[in-house]
Amino acid sequence: MVAELPAFKPLQRPLTKPPKRVLLIATRQIGDVLLATPLLRSMCRAWPETVIDVLVYKNKGQMLQGNPDLNQVIEIEEHPDFAQYRVLWRRIFRRYELAVSTLAGDRPNVYAFLAAPRRVSLIPDLLAQEPLETLDQPGLDPAR
């Protein structure tokens, strides 16, 4: 069984002008941050005057230091306590026109919701998808 990509819905109101400030959210491991760099580059080329910040987990964004496509790297602990969430809240709350989350998860989407009134994210339609079979499930032929 091949998994299909989730359906997407276009922006309700397309951008009519480039946003002034964008937050790119890539809160996973180093490889996920690395894979977000082409998106960062594309946004920078599309919107050369836009200030783009990147939110990553602590110690996962070193590879972005010195990248001319971004303004700053914002780091948060992987498992922040309440005080760390408050610091992040103060730092990102409605400071951006657009938040772009590269991940389909609750925390990245909450960060996007807090950061900007307009958000782009991956949100799979879990109700429409059938569960994938795994090797330990009956009916799956491992030779396939």
Automatic annotation (TrEMBL):
Domain of life assignment: Bacteria
An individual GO BP term: lipopolysaccharide core region biosynthetic process
Keyword Transferase found: yes
UniProt GO cellular component terms: cytosol
A GO molecular-function descriptor: ADP-heptose-lipopolysaccharide heptosyltransferase activity
Organism (species): endosymbiont of Riftia pachyptila (vent Ph05)
Keywords from the UniProt entry: Transferase
The keyword Nucleotidyltransferase belongs to this UniProt entry's keyword annotation: no
Protein name: Putative lipopolysaccharide heptosyltransferase III
